[in-house]
Amino acid sequence: MLAPLRAVASKPFRNARAYHDLARVTLIGRLGADPILRETSSGKPYYTYSVATTVGPRTTDEAGNRVEPPTSWHTIFAFSEASHKLLPFVTKGSTVYVEAELEMRSGGNASDGTPLPDRPLLRHQKMNVINRVKPADEEGELEDLEQ
Q1: pLDDT > 80? residue 6
Q2: How far apart are CA 84 and CA 89, in angstroms?
Q3: Is 143 left (phi over 0), alpha (psi -120 to 50) or beta?
Q4: Does the global pTM surpass 0.90?
């Protein structure tokens, strides 16, 4: 019964089948603004949107004042045409669950020649809307889209 497990566990990693590396980010946060439709230099459409996240609970300082945890902002780029169907209907303030692939881009050099730090590029893979903020003039458009 344990023989198949031993056979797999005894193989060194270098002899195993090739596996894809993975650099994925999962975010649960709120949209900072409505997604914006843009175009690449070659004319291909893509969306960009920002998600705000906080880490840790609210605390109180020595004077008894509530202190909010720091907010981190993440910019996500959606190049997939499949994601373009949902993004126009998600609005600022909506709570979303986002999965994105992480790619590090070279920061290049500053004008004085000093190297700039690498910067992350988050490529949209999946989004689930947890709590959607609806504009006042919209009635049921997203529900029709999801069905």
Answers
A1: no
A2: 10
A3: alpha
A4: no
What CA–CA distance (Å, rounded) separates 10 from 55? 40
| Residue 82 structure tokens | 């499949």
DSSP symbol at 56: S
Phi, psi dihedrals of residue 130, rounded to the nearest 5°: -85, -45
Question: Buried b vs exposed e over 16-41: b needs ≥16 C-beta within 10 Å?
Answer: eeeeeeeeeeebebbbeebbeeeeee
Sketch out the chain's domains with CATH numbers.
Answer: 21-57+69-108+116-146 (2.40.50.140)
**Cross-strand bridge partners of residue 39:** 45
Kindly give the pairing relationship between strand 119-131 and strand 59-60: unpaired
Who's near 82: CB < 8 A, 6+ residues apart?
Answer: none
DSSP 95-121: EEEEEEEEEEE---B-TTSPBPPPEEE
Beta-bridged to residue 123, according to DSSP, are 77, 101
101 within 8 A of 83, measured Cβ to Cβ: no
Per-residue pLDDT of 31-90, as tens digits, reads 999 999 999 999 999 999 999 999 888 888 888 899 889 999 999 999 988 888 889 989
